[in-house]
Amino acid sequence: MEMPVSILGIEKREEMLWTASEPLSKDLFPPCIRRIIQKPMAKKGQHRAGAILAAFLGQVGWSQEDALELWSNVAGVEERIFVEWFGKMHCPKCATLKQKSKSYPELGIADLDLCQPDEKCRDFEGPVEYAIDLKTETDLSRGKEKHSRTLLLVRIFDWTAGREGEVELSSAELDDLERLLVDQNEQKNKVVIYTRAKVRGRLRPRFYLKDMEWPAKRILSEFL
Fold it and tell me: Could you tell me the pTM of the whole model?
């Protein structure tokens, strides 16, 4: 879908990740994680399961070496999934895992028969909380927060929907957008279009200029 947008601003946001101080035994893992480890994975869902497992191991204190050894034995997908998720991304909460998903990077696993809750599951909001037994703020002392990544976010106003939103960009995508805005400033009859395009199998944000086909819609910040 192509959406005419105005760029409201670009910002960096530092994201923190809570991790356990000591590696947890596999005996403490929740049912969904144990099933990812034990159940032979069909091709469908391998990327989703691999991402969930990598993120989980990163938060429950496993070293990268030990986590990668376990992950490699069960994931069945390229190692880049482990690199992108281990120690950098939060493990999804149960509300996300219980959703239906078309494919990675959406991490709903309702179609994979991996979520089979036990009695303990209802007391926790996610796999990490289950494993660490996190129930109160005091329990967070069993680990610490660390910097995981820097998010590059562009705030947009979507003229089609009439609302604001945020789009996460890579550094290369941000450079492209900034060059595009310079070009737009020199071509007053152009509008910025936002869409998503597949890059190496993943949907990534894409901005480009298009000739205006309607009366110009501008926001005050663009004139300023």
Answer: 0.74
